[in-house]
Amino acid sequence: MKQTRIPIENIHINDSFWNGRIRNAVENVVPYQWRVLNDKEPGAAPSHAVMNYKIAAGLEQGEFEGMQFQDSDLAKWIEAASYSLLYKKDPEVEAALEEVIELIGKAQQPDGYLSTYYILKYPDRKWKEIAQGHELYVTGHLLEAAVAYYQVTGKDSLLKILEKNVDLIRSVFGKGEGKLDSYPGHEEIELALMKAYAVTGHRKYFDLAEYFVENRGTVPGFLVEESFQKFGERNKHHQADYYQAHAPIREQKDAEGHAVRAMYFFTGAADVALEKGDETLVKALEELWEKTVGRRMYLTGGVGSQATGERFTIDYDLPNDTCYTETCAAIGLAMWSLRMLRLAPRVRYADIMERALYNNVISGISQDGERYFYVNPLFLKPDVAHYRADHASVEPSRVKWFGCACCPPNVIRTLCGLGGYVYTQSGNDVYQHLYIGNESTLSSDAGEFRLTCESKMPWEGEARITFHGAEGVKLHLRVPSYAKDFTLKVNGKPAEYSVTEGYALLAEALHDGDVIDVNFVMPPHFVLANPRVTEDCGKAAVMRGPLVYCAEQADNFAYLASFRADLTKPVTMEQSDLFDGIVLLKVSGTRQEAAEWGENELYRDYAPGGFGEVPAELRMIPYFLWNNRGEGEMMVWMNAGKE
């Protein structure tokens, strides 16, 4: 399906659910993160990201500090700040962007090289540590930032800096004598190159992206590096599959290794497949996507179950308390799902994209926007998490910043760039994947047309879409898999439609001024896991629409795991004033009374008549809101059934 590029600057989110989050990101979090990156926010872990550039530019004295990919934190902030200008023309943010872009230009080496880690710390190791060096990863994020800044402001200052950097990379990597025949240790540049190709039309960006995608796993590349081999000798979780370099992409059977790297790689590969029209690559990606979400994805849209290596393990290995489910990995899954929608508009891709965005992505940021989760567990006992070694990566509460701070700016660039997830377009066919309120201007063969969407999602299955423009546009409206009694009305009258791959198309052509009402019911319901998922056997979770729900101690009691849900009783809904208004769910069941057990009575013989349970009710809130009221127990999967 040949895609029509929809400029993100033409899509303005105006939505009752997302407005507050985007406004907070624009007005508070973008400035907050700028202070953090400049080491001016009390209580936040030092970043040194801006200072590294100042030292590299010769403006300050000192040494490099931070992770070798520290530059990427600043790059993601530039992208977020650029998108924020779509919502608020802030002179201070614009001045900060111009200042930091000028700084990056001054730090860039004469040949185009850009990585303050190697410029300052190991200048003799440039391009010699591809597996772990992150030089290409940093370029990828900077290039994404350059594209965003160019799209929003029309200024190409950062894009020119990155073009020089990419030209250097093209001279270093490739086939032929004197070139390094390899691929990135941490994928990211592939999808960034495809973004640059989309906005500039320069073929060199596509050619380099295709080379990196197609080369991976076909040649040894960085697998011959001494540093890679030594690292792998010490850790069985850092073999070739950790880098998705164990086989060419068409021969990869599962999502393996580092979850973020895998998601970014598959995202870039999908962009390449679309441009090439390569059905073999499309088929490989379809199979990888299905097995990833069908065997290795958490209910919340999180991926990556093991802390060591931040990686995938094996099928159905989905522990709830020690899971990694990095915020960045969920963002990556949403990005990959969007690319799969561009390849083929299928409701399953949109369902998973939506689930990741509404759950594991925004759980990574507090309501005030100033505290973050790197890891997003589905079960938490704070005292256990504070103590046990296997919980070392699990934070019982969000923190102000991280030493490895890839997630905080990633969440903000996603929020500020959310408009890019709503639609895809192929010629005159427009697909609306998310019922998020927006005001957008698109183009068809007949010229410009406007779509305005008013939505009550995710609390109610209602949306109103107004079309203005000439005839000829075919608007395909997603029928979510969880939607019951889906109906469409045009100008207040019931409308006929057909459904293909989960998208509804009106039987009658759209006319200027038409108003389409989308309605469906989202009953709360219990969800069970495949019995192959050991940790969830005999348990149930609760969902409503795209939202996964969880129980918090703040609304219930201690020892949440003592609760047993009665699946024969319906889940009930309640409008709540919590968090400025949510739909709260209630589950009926029983629980054991811990107070009836002596503190030194560790075990007790079972007696006919029960487990000593009493009637109980569990109040549940959307998962993304947990830990906004202090530390406490949290649980997604609950024991289920009756004695």
Quick description:
The protein has helices at 19-37, 49-56, 71-84, 91-107, 116-120, 130-133, 135-153, 157-172, 189-200, 203-215, 226-234, 259-276, 279-295, 327-343, 347-361, 382-387, 407-416, and strands spanning 11-13, 379-380, 423-426, 429-432, 438-444, 447-455, 462-468, 474-478, 484-490, 493-494, 497-500, 503-506, 515-521, 525-527, 539-544, 547-552, 563-565, 572-576, 582-592, 613-622, 634-635, 638-640.
Helix-strand layout with pairing:
Elements: E1 11-13, H1 19-37, H2 49-56, H3 71-84, H4 91-107, H5 116-120, H6 130-133, H7 135-153, H8 157-172, H9 189-200, H10 203-215, H11 226-234, H12 259-276, H13 279-295, H14 327-343, H15 347-361, E2 379-380, H16 382-387, H17 407-416, E3 423-426, E4 429-432, E5 438-444, E6 447-455, E7 462-468, E8 474-478, E9 484-490, E10 493-494, E11 497-500, E12 503-506, E13 515-521, E14 525-527, E15 539-544, E16 547-552, E17 563-565, E18 572-576, E19 582-592, E20 613-622, E21 634-635, E22 638-640
Parallel strand pairs: 4-8, 17-22
Antiparallel strand pairs: 1-5, 2-21, 3-4, 5-6, 6-7, 7-13, 8-12, 9-10, 9-13, 11-12, 14-15, 15-16, 15-22, 16-20, 16-21, 17-19, 18-19, 19-20
Helix pairs in contact: 1-3, 1-17, 2-4, 3-7, 3-17, 7-8, 7-9, 9-10, 9-12, 10-12, 12-13, 12-14, 14-15
CATH topology descriptor of the largest domain: Glycosyltransferase
Provide a count of the helices: 17
Q: Report the uncertain regions.
A: none
Q: What coarse outline follows from CA principal-axis ratios?
A: globular
Strand order of the largest sheet: 1-5-6-7-13-9-10
Main CATH class of the largest domain: Mainly Alpha
Strand residues, percent: 15-25%
The termini sit apart by 54 Å
Number of strands: 22
Give the tally of structural domains: 3
Averaged pLDDT, please?
Answer: 96
